[in-house]
TrEMBL record:
<keyword id="KW-0238">DNA-binding</keyword>
<feature type="domain" description="HTH araC/xylS-type">
    <location>
        <begin position="174"/>
        <end position="272"/>
    </location>
</feature>
<dbReference type="InterPro" id="IPR018060">
    <property type="entry name" value="HTH_AraC"/>
</dbReference>
<dbReference type="GO" id="GO:0043565">
    <property type="term" value="F:sequence-specific DNA binding"/>
</dbReference>
<dbReference type="InterPro" id="IPR009057">
    <property type="entry name" value="Homeodomain-like_sf"/>
</dbReference>
<protein>
    <submittedName>
        <fullName>AraC family transcriptional regulator</fullName>
    </submittedName>
</protein>
<dbReference type="InterPro" id="IPR018062">
    <property type="entry name" value="HTH_AraC-typ_CS"/>
</dbReference>
<dbReference type="InterPro" id="IPR020449">
    <property type="entry name" value="Tscrpt_reg_AraC-type_HTH"/>
</dbReference>
<keyword id="KW-0804">Transcription</keyword>
<dbReference type="GO" id="GO:0003700">
    <property type="term" value="F:DNA-binding transcription factor activity"/>
</dbReference>
<keyword id="KW-0805">Transcription regulation</keyword>
<dbReference type="Pfam" id="PF12833">
    <property type="entry name" value="HTH_18"/>
</dbReference>
């Protein structure tokens, strides 16, 4: 949803002079409940209208498509009256923060928040410097709209970068999973698997948590235990041989992990499986 909202705003700001870019008048101290952060922000009215107490009274009503730019360290205070949707973009040094707020006229009905790292050229920083200069000349709306359109384009690029990173991460996760499944009998560790794919052990752990919602060791044990079940059911191997064939160096540890997963020892699992088979005719 967020990329679509940014795209719509970009087209609107780029193609029309009807939308206003407002700036706060912080000549008075911030009132109670005012929002003050150390980084610059832009707030866009996506639907409906809101009033901002930081803007001079005759310009304080923000309608659909309008925006307010708040420099770092300055305050603003949104007054919610009629139903409205507001997008806030925070430009910190290392990331962009996005927040969509939904107001039904009486209460907030939802909030959609996410953040993305700021990567690549420092285009966004130069545009923010320009916006800070426009603050002293707020009537230059044409320049303000051009710069805001540039900032929205910067946000689009950062969101696209994030999508590409997530796509690559997902593909890498699947490749590593396949490698583990095919090599589970080897003495795999977080360190040697990470080295195999030219990433750090910490990133490998992050990848499994993020893409698979499971820990690396947990997944490795899962693969090994599934293989152990097949060997217990299909081959007359000793428990120690099953453990070794599945990559467990310590057969006692294998038995503990197996019991924790199945609530049975390997021997009990095999016996129960065999008891369910039809009797062979001699």
């Amino acid at each position: 949803m967020l990329p679509d909202v940014i795209e719509t705003l970009f087209r609107s700001v780029s193609g029309s002079d009807a939308f206003a870019i407002r700036f706060p008048d912080n000549s008075q101290p911030p009132p109670e409940l005012a929002s003050v952060v150390s980084f610059p922000r832009i707030e866009f009215v996506i639907e409906g209208e809101v009033r901002d107490r930081s803007v001079l009274a005759e310009k304080g009503l923000l309608r659909e498509g309008d925006a307010i730019y708040i420099p770092g360290g300055k305050w603003n205070l949104t007054v919610w009256q009629r139903p409205a949707i507001l997008l806030s973009i925070l430009f910190s040094k290392e990331k962009l923060g996005f927040s969509l707020q939904f107001w039904d006229g009486e209460k907030f009905t939802g909030t959609d928040k996410q953040s993305v790292p700021r990567l690549g050229p420092r285009v966004g920083s130069f545009l923010l410097q320009t916006m800070n200069e426009i603050v002293s000349n707020p009537d230059d709306q044409q320049t303000a709209r051009c710069v805001v359109a540039g900032l929205l384009s910067h946000c689009q690029e950062q969101l696209a970068n994030r999508a590409q990173i997530l796509s690559r991460s997902g593909a890498l996760f699947e490749v590593i999973k396949k490698y583990i499944e095919e090599n589970a009998s080897l003495p795999l560790t977080r360190e040697n698997v990470a080295k195999r794919f030219h990433i750090t052990p910490n990133y490998l752990s992050h990848l499994f948590r993020k893409s698979g919602n499971i820990g690396f060791s947990e997944y490795l044990n899962h693969v090994r235990l599934e293989r152990a079940k097949l060997l217990l059911k299909g081959y007359e191997l000793k428990i120690k041989e099953v453990a070794t064939s599945c990559g467990f160096v310590d057969s006692n540890y294998f038995c503990r992990v197996f019991r924790k997963s199945t609530a049975r020892s390997p021997s009990q699992y095999r016996s129960q499986w065999l008891s369910q088979l039809p009797e062979r005719k001699s």
